[in-house]
Amino acid sequence: MPEQRYHVTGMTCAHCADHITREVTQVSGVSGVSVDLAENAVTVSGTALDDTRVRAAITEAGYAVHAAL
Q1: CA 7 → CA 38, 49, 64, 66, distances in Å?
Q2: Could you give all domains of the chain from N- to C-terminal order, each with its CATH number?
Q3: What span, in angstroms and rounded, lies between the C-alpha atoms of 13 and 50?
């Protein structure tokens, strides 16, 4: 299954991770979201991932996406 990893800042706690997970999971094609607070990384897996929509969901959750890793 394809994966995309993003460098995201502004995440500080489990609540942040839960919030991002809820938002990104709603994006069509996403089947999994993993947040690594220590590395400021969000890994998204699924079929036919739409990079623009994933980035928008992270931004809408209130966090900054700096780059795909």
Answers
A1: 11, 17, 8, 6
A2: 3-68 (3.30.70.100)
A3: 26
**Coil, strand or helix: which one is 10?**
coil
38: CB partners within 8 A, 6+ apart: none
pTM here?
Answer: 0.93
Report residue 4: phi and psi, to 5°. Answer: -135, 135
How far CA 6 is from CA of 28, 33, 51, 64, in Å, comes to 18, 11, 10, 10
**Helix (H, G, I), strand (E, B), or coil: what is residue 62?**
coil
pLDDT tens track of the chain, all 69 residues? 799 999 999 999 999 999 999 999 999 999 999 999 999 999 999 998 999 999 999 999 999 999 887
